[in-house]
């Protein structure tokens, strides 16, 4: 390695060429690397979907789902199976283990479905299985018009969807509110009865109205001909004029049916700013650059919009906007940290060395960026904050190497010789110090589940940039040092500070045993006391850009009625635009994300998104320095007053007000559920989730009600809901003895009734865009009297009333059935205001109720944040143990005796107090990122411990002990100050989603400050006790 270093110092042209080449590669990587808000935190999942029209949730569970679940339960690689059954359909979401082969598991799932098909109803289509896409919402486009029909808008939307879907990296474009054109034939059952016709005969005649398949061809010489039909009629009038041959009688279709060619209403209807629209939801794949894609799509639509006169296009919920803002914020924080580090080194050492160190930082980051890019990761909040965390640490290598070179130059050595000698001397300790820091972060890879996917970029970024720092410090910095460093004096006179340190250390050595006992007893006591006095929540609270209103009406509410209510609520919210700094509102009727974070499709649900302007900058650094440091002041024509940044309040302050405004609609429309939600990181859908399972439904419902009542009385619970909802009334037809005596059967009656009350596809035809379906249903099917007065035609031509030959049993099934790993669960969800109370505190309050429920034989399973905390505790036990061993092994490479390695490591648990006090000072609770920060703190404080003990190692007399300890004051203070300043902006000026990782900076920054004191005072005192060092008179 030494010869390689000399080679690079002697070959300047090669050295600088490599630097330029690295700069080019780094620029290319930055341009092409995907940029997004958060990394993908979802494990691989497989969906199994099936449908059986007209059946209740319970019937589908019995007839299909249970058999499929049993078949799937034997497949290795599936972590859990979550089933949702609603009338007519079901979906099973299979979450795979982290290391499962998704293709193999999918193949086994499909085989299991095939194997279970023998138990499914014969007329049920085979369920389908597929891997769920990990596409991410990019932007939404509303298409509306005051002059065009819904059909015209649908055609335009479908045309634009087709164009956008062809753009590279666009994974999906779905349309909310669109439908395919169809021919709808509504049969007049009264007219059919008057003509004394059989329903089956009418449907058979209708099915023969169109034939779209080829008839054949004629290959006559010189005249090849294809033969086909005209594929049915074209206009509504032509359809109604069609002559049907029914049971030997010729009847016009218009005499017994009403025909309509139209675009039917779909399951969802979208609005934008209270105006009904069609909405294109555009998603991107994992490798797409959100910022560039969004910009390209907006320009593209603007360009082609002239082809659609009378159509209005509006983009909203553009994910690239907050991504760009957050990236700019973090980049400016990086630059500000770099400036602070440069200034501190200039003051603490000298200007030339500060310039060399500062020059090396970008190249360390470039090397790290190349690794991240070619490993397939993206630039996002987590990866950038990982870079922000390491900026203060990465300069340590350059400072130690550069200072050593400067020392040799000051002693009169030639610059080139000093560069070579200085690097060689520090090669081993710098390498081992870097390995120690990396060893503290590497065990994060041992975390499991979605937490690991969220945080894995932190150790990757830290380790890769530290590796880049080693390369820069060993191969490029020496050349810069040779050309720039000269004999110089430090800006600060260190002698007075060193003498003061000597006196303080001498006092501690005088009472060394007493102080060591105090350190080892009092600090752990204070640490435990401080930790117990703090609250814990999984993630810190942060300010987002959206508020969401999720609502559910009575089960019998139609989609049109839901839309009307949604427009009323949306209009009300728009009246408070200034109060909320409201940018736009968008709503979907027929779809919602529930308060539990689950997707729900039904006519009686809705979801309103309030898109807010960005929060105004509240301090000098964010308002004036950041635009300069991230260069947006030069690249964007907004100056220091961004028109998008006008919001004065955070979302957590606005959500109670939104809840207050809409609350009156709960009683007005007798809503089942209505609540306001804020943005969340994505790992936890609901703060509290309590799953209850057992065989007694009444007992389960009673238990859920008890828990709901308890939650309603706890201050800080923002909203709560459960999955115990009864669906639509179900009329079950039970044939009676009289009906059986007439030769009727349950199947025969069902077939006759389904012809009237079930919309069925009878045939197909063509329109200009492709295949168009022909569907039938009864004109009066939505009138209950039609069923109760229905008359069936017997074989002999007689008519008999349905209620005479069958009993009608009225039952009400559950609206949906939720299952976990094959067991039906009743679930209670709750979200809390964590500024008032934490989920753990709430669960502690309801613990007596949960214990009472368990005694009744009901299985209680706590999910939500509680589950994540439990998983984190289990992971951290393993992670901490691995980190300790890795650090110990590294220390034993430096110190031959175990006692010295353990002395350095003893600083780690004692430094935790600083991290906790830092959280107290900033008024923040302990969080999962705080724990990760404490893990990283271990490697940082050990580095300073190595610097101190490596110099003290081998001293056995007081004079050399104090002399060497005094010489370590400067490098320890310099590395600690630069590390803390590198974290300065993240500690004190974190905004938006950056707040999620602020606790990591708090743990490392304040833990390091306290750790510096321990390494300067406690560690030498402990060494003096072990080696019998006595105090000296000063």
Automatic annotation (TrEMBL):
Q: Please identify the protein, giving its name as recorded.
A: Efflux RND transporter permease subunit
Q: Does the keyword Membrane apply?
A: yes
The answer, when asked if Amino-acid biosynthesis is one of the entry's keywords, is no
Transmembrane spans: 13-31, 330-349, 356-375, 381-405, 426-446, 452-479, 514-531, 878-895, 900-919, 931-952, 972-990, 996-1026
Reading the lineage from the top rank, the first entry is: Bacteria
Q: Which key words are in the record?
A: Membrane, Transmembrane, Transmembrane helix
Q: Which InterPro entries match?
A: AcrB_DN_DC_subdom (IPR027463), Acrflvin-R (IPR001036)
Q: What are the GO MF terms of this UniProt record?
A: xenobiotic transmembrane transporter activity
GO cellular component terms given for this protein: plasma membrane
What is the taxonomic lineage of the source species?
Bacteria, Pseudomonadati, Campylobacterota, Epsilonproteobacteria, Campylobacterales
Matching entries from PANTHER family are given as: PTHR32063, RND SUPERFAMILY EFFLUX PUMP PERMEASE COMPONENT
